[in-house]
Amino acid sequence: MTPGRARRRTRATTLIRLGALSASLVLATAPTPARAAEPTPDLSQSIAADQPLATGRATLAAGHVDIGPRYVGNRWTLLIHDGTQAQPVWRDPDDTLLRVSDAALQTVPDDPAYAFLGIEAGKRAYVVPQVQDRNVVWLGWNTQDPRVMQTIDRGATLTLLGVRGPGTLTTYLQSGNFAAPQPLWRSAESKAQPFWAEVNTHTHANWVFSAPGVYLVAVQVSADLVDGKKVSATGTLRFAVGDATSADDAFAAEADTPVPAGPEPPAENPVDAGERAGGAPALLIAALAGTAVALAAGLVVLLLRGRGARRRAERERAVASPEGRR
Fold it and tell me: What does the pLDDT look like over 129-165, one tens digit per residue?
């Protein structure tokens, strides 16, 4: 191989690598859509279609509790699934108080990974944990009502609309001790915050309250149905955080949490929910990725054409040379 040909081959290899690198960089920097995938393997449950809707006020201070969509008659609603007793029931959020006792107090770790909590490291905060603590209410969500599973198209979107309380609320997922935390809801952000939950999902997360007191948390659940319709319902979760917080005050608090300007549309798909939560339109990401791939393909085509032209020129020179005419 001649030195000139070796240099050309080196330049060709470099161009191919640059094209591939540009494609990989675009794809690698695209934000991951917010999806509340089940982070632990031990959350299997099924919900019977005939579980009753309880009436009257109830305070839930320990045990298994989920929020989720359910049909009441033909009406799509957001309810609380109370699994704290032998016979699970559904409850109206307005009549249900979620008590977070002093047993939930934990120290905020001195780790930059938890800066999103907005709480100084070393301070104590009230944490409803992702992994069950028998002394603390265990709060998650599900999309497992039988009629919900039959009628929704792929899943539902849970959106935080707003929080009223003496401190902040942050909800996040963390898969294992060494995985980075994944924030889902932050009351410090004054915007609607959606995340996507697949059909037949049952997930628990960490709920962190920065101060004791009464919190009202407005949540919307929405979905596209298999028949093409859209459904949406809003409910307000009531929390009494800290042993000294009065249950009467929590029930008396007005559920007037404002809906942020420009709330999310009532139904989402996984891409749409991730676009708004991640802050980058999927169409832009797809366009950038397509451009990078096209660039890489174009470089390959040009290089192949260049090699073909060089070979033809070399053959012509060989024929034209005295040795070639012999």
Answer: 999 999 999 999 999 999 999 999 999 999 999 999 9
